[in-house]
Amino acid sequence: MSRVGISREIGQSRWHAWWVNGGLLLLAVISLAPLAWMLSVSFMPSGQASQFPPPLLPAHTTLANYQALFARTGMGNNFINSLLVSVGITLGSLLFNTLAGYAFAKLRFACRERLFQMLLAALVIPAQVAMLPLFLLMKQMGLVNTFGGVVIPALASVFGIFLVRQYARSIPDELLEAARIDGASEARIFFQIVLPMLKPVLVTLAIFTFMGAWNDFMWPLIVLTDQEHYTLPVALASLSREHIMDVEMMMAGAVVTVLPVLLLFLVLQRYYIQGLLLGSVKG
Amino acid sequence: MKRGSLAGWVFAAPALIVIGVFFGLPVLSALALSLTDFDLYALADPHSLRFNGLGNYIDLLQTPMFWKSLGNTAYFVVAGVPLSIAVSLGAALLLNAPAARFKALFRTALFAPVVTTLVAVAVIWRYLFHTRYGLVNWGLGQIGINPIDWLGDPNWAMPTIIGFAVWKNFGYNMVIFLAGLQAIPKDLYEAARIDGASRWQQFLHITLPMLGPVLLVVGVITVSGYFQLFAEPYVMTRGDPLQSTVSVLYFMFEEGFKWWNLGRASAVAFLLFLIILAVTTLMLRFGKRRELV
After folding, report:
1. ipTM
2. DSSP result, A238-276
């Protein structure tokens, strides 16, 4: 290749590198700008955001919006509700899904394959189809407007069972057989041998479940009927109706809602992405 | 073996009971409910409940608002899914390019909107797209474009919601595409380069065909997810302006939990389910045929 050709090639690939990184930077700015704006406005003195031109940074930083939020709207209460509901769902469904996922992977029982096929087939049915009768069922059981109404239907999920089953299949049968020959009970095998081996997938499932429960909107909106019991998303949706003019306080509310899951993701994103990829294989 | 069988049932039972009682049973009841005239009166006194046959379904097909909501949802799916997949694929290609720097950092940044709470970021968007004080109109004003009434103009409300949904979701499919791209053998590109194929030709003749199965799966999952549009219009527009953002699920929610026509609302849910099933089945069949050729 001639000298001119080589330098043109280098010039082109440098151009290309600019395009690639410029594109990525643009996408990153678009992705993060709304979140950065939310954070900035939440520290602005009341009324500053409703000016023209819209300011990007607080005139002076203040925590007044957060104080007003917790004092006037009961968001602190909703935060605790969200935490209780999400932790309850996470712990409960972790236990149920792990037990079932392990059973479907390693224990033989009647109708096992057919049951699993049915579970997978159920994935095509949108959750909303069940919501109307589920509400009537909850009413019968006296669970409307209780945390139980949110937590109990979420105590098991096909996705969770599937995820655990995929992972548990790699546990060697010889190991379980050896423990059985030694006289260990099935419960002991599960808690002392299987559970420690499933740790990575349990972390993944826990993050997925917690985030899903924290962000869930439609079902809590239906089953929780008063402000006292609202989870954060439901409370925020209802507050944003009343306090639409109060931009700074609403953004403080958005920060309180988004920050916990965002931080959780940042800390544990390796497990989260793994779960996403494992789960998407199901299609 | 006997012992294993019993243990299997005992281990699987709690999860199966929860799914059976709180999902299986309600789905079957929804089918039954959709064949009745279950309404506010039946809620108070179940004896006033009457079997209605396909009455609800026939009635719905003659309700303009149902068709309107179906049209709005179809608009959201038809415009939103290709756009979202294109952005996801573009972002994945950029992240996968050898020239890209700080890949882990960029990936995290682009993925961040996915894990945020939909309601909270929808509230943010409502302010960013505010006609008078919104940053978006201010930015457009800087380059000489007149303010647009994003969420108040019937022609703009749905495009704004589509933009929001794409922003919120593209990172999810991006990560799946990225894994797909990384699985394509590098020597395919090497061979193509030696043959003098341009980047665009490499994309058309190597990347796209190799990514085919992933694209199909992602397409099916995204379509079925986009059909279930609800929270975005609920928070951003309440279905307005001029009902241009009422989605099928929003319509179902209002029928069911505002007017308590649970029979009718169940019929809406089932119709939506059938539509999703039909569209995704068609997509899968089309994809299979294309791959077999």
Report:
1. 0.90
2. HHHHHTTT-HHHHHHHHHHHHHHHHHHHHHHHHHHHHHH
**Across the interface, do B108 and A266 touch by the CB < 8 Å criterion?**
yes
Residue of A nearest to B111 (CA): A31
Cα first-last separation, chain B: 47
User: For residue A97, what are the contacts with CB-CB under 8 A and spacing of at least 6?
Assistant: A156, A157, A160, A161, A163, A164, A205, B15
pTM to 2 decimals?
0.91
A8 has pLDDT over 70:
no
Of B95, B73, B116, B21, nearest in space to A255 by CA:
B116
Q: Report how far residue A85's alpha carbon sits from residue A260's, in angstroms, rounded to the nearest whole number.
A: 14
Helix H or strand E encompassing A41: helix A3-42
Q: How many CB pairs under 8 A join A and B?
A: 285
Cβ neighbours of B252 in A, within 8 Å: 128
Nearest residue of A to residue B171 by CA position?
A31
Does B235 sit within 8 Å of A240, measured CB to CB? yes
Residue B120 CA: distances (Å) to CA of A10, A232, A253, A276 = 46, 9, 8, 22
Q: How far is B238 from chain A (nearest CA, A)?
A: 10
Do B105 and A23 contact (CB within 8 A), yes or no? no
pLDDT in tens, B48-67: 788 888 989 999 999 999 99
Disruptive mutation site among B127, B137, B230, B276 for chain A (greatest number of A CBs within 10 Å): B127
- Mean local confidence (pLDDT), A77-104: 96
CB contact under 8 A, B176 and A280: yes
Contact at CB, B4 and A109, closer than 8 angstroms: yes
What does the pLDDT look like over B230-270, one tens digit per residue?
Answer: 999 999 998 888 889 999 999 999 999 999 999 999 999 99
Q: Which amino acid is at B44?
A: A
In sequence order, the 6+-apart residues with CB closer than 8 A to the CB of A268 are: A203, A207
Distance CA A251, CA A254 (A): 5
